[in-house]
Amino acid sequence: MKALEKSRPAEGLWMTRAPVPEVGPDDVLIKINKTGICGTDIHIWNWDEWAAKTVPVPMITGHEFAGEIVEVGKNVTGLHVGQRCSGEGHLIGKHSRQSRAGKFHLDPETRGIGVNEQGAFAQYLRLPAFNVVPLPDAVDNEIGAILDPLGNAVHTALSFDLIGEDVLITGAGPIGIMAAAVARHVGARNVVITDVNQARLDLATKVADVVPVNVAKDDLKGIESKLGMREGFDVGLEMSGNQAALDQMVENLVMGGRIALLGIPPGKSPVDWSRIVFKAITIKGVYGREIFETWYKMIAMLQNGLVVRNVITHRFGVDDFEKGFAAMKSGEAGKVVLSWT
Ligand code: NAD
Ligand code: ZN
Questions:
Q1: Number of helices (H) and strands (E), helices first, in the chain?
Q2: 216 CB less than 6 Å from ligand 1?
Q3: Which residues does the UniProt record annotate as the domain Enoyl reductase (ER) (predicted)?
Q4: Is-contact 59 43, C-beta < 8 A?
Q5: Ligand number with the minimum distance to the CA of 328
Q6: I need a labelling partner for 336 at 20 to 30 A (CA). Which of 176, 209, 255, 277 fits?
Q7: Closest Cα to atom 8, ligand 1: which residue?
Q8: Is 173 in the pocket of ligand 1 (CB under 6 A)?
Q9: What is the ipTM of this complex?
Q10: What domains are there in the chain, each with its CATH number?
Q11: Per-residue pLDDT tens for 168-210?
């Protein structure tokens, strides 16, 4: 089969031929239809410090996918050949304290497809049946291929009650933008999204009914008074990984405000913790998606009026994968989807 592989420890990815994976008794084989390119794939392409210490080579990359089941292992029930699906790319262990408590997303032995295990940028993917998420008609394959990052957005946005709340999202990357759409969908009052990249803020307004603020030029306090917010935002969703953004969030939150942190900072944080103490701010770290509560809620919302399709800005056939990665690296793209059929 065709597979997009990190074949050697150097910059780039290479289209290779790999054997179709063999399916174990508890696995299914998925014929891949569409895949999404993630920031993680860019780290792997670039072969930065994180990738070099994390990813063994050779490795088929990719973890955002939708496709169709073409084979089921002998122990698998409830799934059938021909079923359209996406799936959770975090493969969990079943032994840890949290896993045994049913909090699968908190298992410390989690391994990622396309990072630690052979991934989805291929014509076929083997996946444990446990990880499969069937897709209803309302979720087509290109949306199916971005459920992983939409799930990050949903997990973060649903961390706190947003009904009637004023929400600040820092970082208008694909996940921040989709989180804005989710916040609106569940009934937030004002949703303000910040970035320093105007193209991404423009994209945000094409996906969701949000107020964009370019914090490289404009003052957040000015927008707050324009929106009639006297004491600051109730909830912050940090989706940039940028420390100046987190600082600005703390500054602009109400007393007792809540922050969900998805963005991954580059190193130790220089944030002033005394302000967090004196403002009595609650901070929650968010990793991945709740397995499978996030998937359940995400698909239900997509069936009930949540629309995120405009976040997809580029579509390529997989033979043009280099164009897709170039679009991602430009920093101007939303989601980039590759078609395998
Ligand atoms: P992205 O890099 O595409 O988007 C981040 C955005 O933040 C960019 O548009 C950038 O211009 C913007 N930004 C930079 N400085 C800013 C500032 N001072 N104020 C406001 N915005 C600023 O990332 P993404 O793919 O949308 O992912 C969002 C974040 O979530 C990333 O940090 C990513 O590493 C992280 N992530 C975490 C998890 C997890 O499980 N915790 C999963 C996926 C992604
Ligand atoms: Zn991803």
A1: 12, 18
A2: no
A3: 12-338
A4: no
A5: 1
A6: 209
A7: 173
A8: yes
A9: 0.99
A10: 2-146+308-339 (3.90.180.10), 155-285 (3.40.50.720)
A11: 999 999 999 999 999 999 999 999 999 999 999 999 999 999 9
